Amino acid sequence: MEEKLKNWLKALVEIPSPTGQEKDLQLFLEENLRRLGFETELREVSPSRPNLVAWRGQSPLLIATHSDTLPAKEYSLREEGGLFYGPGVADAKGQIAALLSVLEENRSPATLAFTVDEEGRGEGSKNLHLPPWVKMAVVLEPTELKVAIAQAGSLDLELSIKGRKAHGACPREGDNAIIMALEAITRIWGLNFMRTRHPILEWPHVIPYWIKGGDPELYVIPDEATIRLEVQLFPPFTPEKAITEIERAIADYGRLKVLDFDPPFEISPQAEVVKLAERAFLQALGQRVTLTGMPSWTDAEPLYHKGIEAIVLGAGKLSEAHTERERVSLEELKRLAAVLDRLISLKAD
Questions:
Q1: I want to staple 153 with a disulfide (CB 3.0 to 4.6 A). Which of 129, 141, 208, 233 is the partner?
Q2: Helices 94-105 and 330-348, interaxial angle, to 10°?
Q3: What integer is the mean pLDDT of 314-332?
Q4: Helix orientation angle between 239-249 and 177-189, rounded to the nearest 10 degrees
Q5: CATH of 153-262 among 3.40.50.150, 3.60.20.10, 3.90.1150.200, 3.30.70.360
Q6: 166: number of CA atoms within 13 Å, CB side?
Q7: What are the C-alpha distances in Å from 272 to residues 149, 240, 308?
Q8: If pLDDT is split at 50, 70 and 90, which confidence band does 129 have?
Q9: Cα(42)–Cα(161) distance, integer angstroms
Q10: For the chain, first and last CA: distance in Å?
C-alpha cells in the first residue's frame, strides 16, 4: 500500500492542474479508472474544463473531490521523514492518491466524481451531473481525519468607504476613510449572527483580504478606501438575512457590494452517511469518529442543496493548504485509505 500511495501521489502532483487547467489531470484519472473497470463520463463545465464522473456498479455512496489546485512555480513531490510536500498534496491530491490505491485492490461497486474549479467559484460541483442512484456523499478534503457534518457559508464583500480630505497634520478636520473602513469591520463583528456560537463550528470570523486607500507620497487624510473581505456564516443564518444586517450596520460609512455568497449547511449526526462513517472508522481503525465542522467552502455544499447528505473527510490540515507548508503524512494517508476501503465495502454489502 505504501509504494502504491507514493507512486500515485507523485504522478498526481507532477501533473499541473491549477484552476482553469484541469483537463490533463482529468484525462489521466479517466484513463486509470477505465483500466480499473469503471465507466466514465467527462462533461465540460467550460471549454477544456470537464468534470469527471465514474462508476463501477451502482453504489449509492458518492466519493467526490476536486482536481484543481492553486498555481505553483514547481510541480514536484518532496518526501521528508514520512511527510509529503508539494502543490495540492493535501488539497486534494493526497486524498485522490489514497482513493486510487484502494480502488486498485477493492473491486466493489463505487461511484466517484472529480470536479473542476473548486478553488475558483465552484462551478464544477454547481454544474455536476450525477447518476440517479447517488443518495449520499463523502467529500474528500483535509480534515485531519475528522468527520465534518457542518460547513460554514461565506459572504464575499467589497466595501467602498467615502471620507473627507484634510491636511495630514489636521486629522480632526477630515474623515479618514481607512479608519472608517476599520470601524465598519468592527460594526460587522458586533452583529447578532457574528456573536452566536455554533456547537461545532464555534465562532464566525470577519476576514479582510485586501485594502486600498490613501497615497503614500501625499501628506493628506485619505477620503476613499476600498476593502475586500469575507464574512463567515454559520447555520442557521442565511446569506440574505446577514447581508441585510450588514447593509444597515455600515450605511453611515459607504457602499456595500456583494461579490458572491455561499450558504452554510449542516446535517444530523444521525444521518445515514454519518452512521456509515462511524462503522467504517470502527472496523478500519478501531476508533470512534470525531465530529467537526468545515470552516471553508467545499463541493459538499452544492451536493447538499441537490438533496444529497454529505460529510467532509480527509487527511492533512486545512490551515496548511494554500501555503508553502502544505503537507500530508504517509501514515495519515494510509489511515484514510483504510477508512475509504471500509466505506466502499460497507455500502456494497
A1: 233
A2: 50
A3: 96
A4: 140
A5: 3.30.70.360
A6: 11
A7: 12, 30, 11
A8: very high
A9: 45
A10: 23
Report d(CA 64, CA 229) in Å as an integer: 29
Residue 195 grid cell: 456573536
DSSP conformation letters of 25-94? HHHHHHHHHHHTT-EEEEEEEETTEEEEEEEES--SEEEEEE--B---S----EEETTEEESTTIIIIIH
Q: What is the reported pLDDT for 175?
A: 96
Q: Are 326 and 88 in contact (CB under 8 A)?
A: yes
Going by their DSSP bridges, the two strands 110-115 and 61-66 should be labelled as parallel
Kindly indicate the confidence band of residue 104, based on its pLDDT and cuts at 50, 70 and 90.
very high
Partners of 265 in beta bridges: 151
Does domain 2-151+265-348 correspond to CATH entry 3.30.230.10? Answer: no
* Cα distance between residue 51 and residue 125, in whole Å: 8
Measured distance CA(235)–CA(197) in Å, rounded: 10
User: Residue ranges per domain, the chain?
Assistant: 2-151+265-348, 153-262
Per-residue pLDDT tens over the stretch 130-174: 999 999 999 999 999 999 999 999 999 999 999 999 999 999 999
The pLDDT-based confidence of 274 (bands split at 50, 70, 90) is very high
Query: What's the confidence (pLDDT) of residue 348?
Result: 78
* Cα–Cα distance for residue pair 294/142, rounded to 1 Å: 9
5-57 pLDDT, tens per residue?
999 999 999 999 999 999 999 999 999 999 999 999 999 999 999 999 999 99
**Chain length of the chain:** 349
Q: Over the chain, what is the mean pLDDT?
A: 96
* CA dihedral sign, ordered 180, 243, 322, 82: positive
Q: What is the DSSP letter of 290?
A: -
Give the span between the Cα atoms of 327 and 151, in whole angstroms.
23
Task: Give backbone dihedrals phi and psi of 164, rounded to 5 degrees, phi first.
Answer: -145, 130
Cα–Cα dist 219/176, whole Å:
12
Joined together, the cell numbers standing for residue 171 give 486629522
